[in-house]
């Protein structure tokens, strides 16, 4: 009887909202329908988890089944983790280094060509710790990999190496794109969101407003509102935006002030970090101009986020004839 | 007919207030113009009738709405301040979210010799009552009430 596995299963069940535990367990398929019927789902979650653990003990659940439940949990609730996007290519020479450590690896393939890989990390001297896991989501037809590394970032190079070897590429590079919402990250890199477009429809079409519009109420700023709406459409498109949590801009630009103030003696770049956070960053950027809080059009530094597939930016001085700043690739 | 101009930052209760005013029974035609700030766009000058009353809407939860109104006041012809301007201050029901100092509001009313009306426009009852008051003021400002002139408002 594997106590570690059973306890791990119990803790995984505790993470699931009570009303959804039955559905998740059915998807897991390890406990039979008859066994599931014996669980009283009206108790507290703590008691439910103990009932499930008891049944798993009786059915001799092992690490493999526990890992599978964990994969299913993370597939249903991927937004509890932070995902980074990696891009693989075949340029350059493939290089290897050898490294040995103990791991538990489990795979599961899903309908949309996505392979979910769960890795529990140990060290060369200890068994894998099931609570220290990384997840990799790989779509086999694409060069993109989504990794949620959680605690042990030191294992990241090893993980990347393994991905490169397994998928027959040469190099892997971390893209500057990170978010809680895995599906939105996929939407961005697979270009599945509604992109900006130039509207060719004449403005007349916009004049057909709501049926209840009273002609005695005149909006003085109507043409301005329509201009903002049109610009927003061009920048963001019509459909829902991918869900990002933040955008971070690292500035390494010179401080531009009146020369006679001479704030800094040494002419060094002024280092500054600006971070925009939001439950849904792109939708909030889209509503800034219509809400009157920003001028339209918005800065391209903000609107280029989905097209450039990044939410980390470094802004440096342009070091040649044209003063100003540019965004580094 | 009479025309009222409601000036207030975007996303405010102006639209609902305008609709409430239109629902009231009255014996004269009214036009309501909404603007988020002044000056008004010049391309619509030829479409605009003479304005009888300007009501500035300030949301006490938003410093931005106060700043926007203060900036707009600079574009109002001085003759309007003889009783044809008033300030509507909304959002007063949520004491915890107040961003604007009361002193700033009182000073505004004093500096511009115009009445300050506190109204929680998010509540329908108060919105209807405010609409009725505005209609009455509009009637007087448009000169439709014999013997009563808009100058009385600057004494409030």
From TrEMBL, chain A:
Keyword set includes Nucleus: yes
Source species, domain of life: Eukaryota
Main localization of the protein described in the UniProt heading: nucleus
Pfam families: CENP-N
Keywords per UniProt: Centromere, Chromosome, Nucleus
CC per GO annotation: chromosome, centromeric region; nucleoplasm
Name of the protein in question: Centromere protein N
From TrEMBL, chain B:
Entry keyword Endoplasmic reticulum: no
Gene3D superfamilies (UniProt xref): P-loop containing nucleotide triphosphate hydrolases
Pfam families: CENP-M
Subcellular location: Chromosome, Centromere; Nucleus
One GO CC annotation: chromosome, centromeric region
Keyword Signal: no
This protein's UniProt keywords: Centromere, Chromosome, Nucleus
Protein name: Centromere protein M
Residue ranges of coiled coil: none
Native source organism of the sequence: Phasianus colchicus
Signal sequence range: none
């Amino acid at each position: 009887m594997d106590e570690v596995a059973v306890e791990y299963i119990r803790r995984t069940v505790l993470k699931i909202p009570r009303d959804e535990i039955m559905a998740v367990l059915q998807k897991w398929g390890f406990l039979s329908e008859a066994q599931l019927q014996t669980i009283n789902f009206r108790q507290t979650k703590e008691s439910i988890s103990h009932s499930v653990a008891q049944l798993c003990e009786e059915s001799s659940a092992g690490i493999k089944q526990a890992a599978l439940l964990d994969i299913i949990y993370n597939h249903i609730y991927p937004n509890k983790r932070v995902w980074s996007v990696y891009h693989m290519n075949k340029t350059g020479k493939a290089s290897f280094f050898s490294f040995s450590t103990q791991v538990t690896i489990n795979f599961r393939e899903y309908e949309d060509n996505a392979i979910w890989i769960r890795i529990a990390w140990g060290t060369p001297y200890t068994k894998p710790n099931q609570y220290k896991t990384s997840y990799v989501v790989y779509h086999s037809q694409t060069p993109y990999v989504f990794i949620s590394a959680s605690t042990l970032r030191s294992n990241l190079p090893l993980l990347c190496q393994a991905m490169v070897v397994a998928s027959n590429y040469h190099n892997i590079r971390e893209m500057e794109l990170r978010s809680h919402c895995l599906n939105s990250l996929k939407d961005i890199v697979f270009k599945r969101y509604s992109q900006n477009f130039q509207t060719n429809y004449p403005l007349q079409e916009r004049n057909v407003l709501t049926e209840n519009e009273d002609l005695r109420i005149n909006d003085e700023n109507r043409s301005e509102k329509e201009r903002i709406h049109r610009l927003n459409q061009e920048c963001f498109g019509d459909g829902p935006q991918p869900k990002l949590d933040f955008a971070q801009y690292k500035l390494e630009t010179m401080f531009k002030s009146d020369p006679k103030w001479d704030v800094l003696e040494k002419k060094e770049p002024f280092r500054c970090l600006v971070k925009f956070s939001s439950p849904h960053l792109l939708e909030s950027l889209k509503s800034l101009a219509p809400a009157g809080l920003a001028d339209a059009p918005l800065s391209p530094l903000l609107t280029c986020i989905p097209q450039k597939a990044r939410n980390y930016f470094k802004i440096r001085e342009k070091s040649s004839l044209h003063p100003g700043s540019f965004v580094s690739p | 007919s009479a025309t009222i101009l409601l000036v207030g930052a975007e996303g405010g209760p102006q639209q609902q207030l305008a609709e409430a005013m239109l629902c009231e029974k009255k014996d004269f035609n009214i036009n309501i113009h909404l603007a988020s700030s002044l000056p008004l766009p010049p391309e619509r000058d030829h479409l605009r009738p003479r304005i009888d009353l300007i009501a500035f809407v300030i949301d006490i939860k938003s410093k931005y709405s106060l700043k926007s109104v203060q900036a707009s006041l600079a574009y109002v012809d001085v003759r309007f301040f003889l009783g044809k301007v008033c300030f509507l201050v909304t959002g007063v029901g949520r004491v915890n979210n107040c961003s604007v100092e009361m002193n700033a509001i009182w000073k505004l009313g004093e500096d511009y010799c115009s009445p300050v009306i506190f109204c929680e426009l998010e509540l329908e009852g108060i919105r209807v009552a405010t609409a009725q008051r505005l209609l009455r003021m509009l009637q007087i400002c448009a000169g439709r009430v014999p013997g009563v002139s808009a100058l009385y408002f600057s004494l409030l």
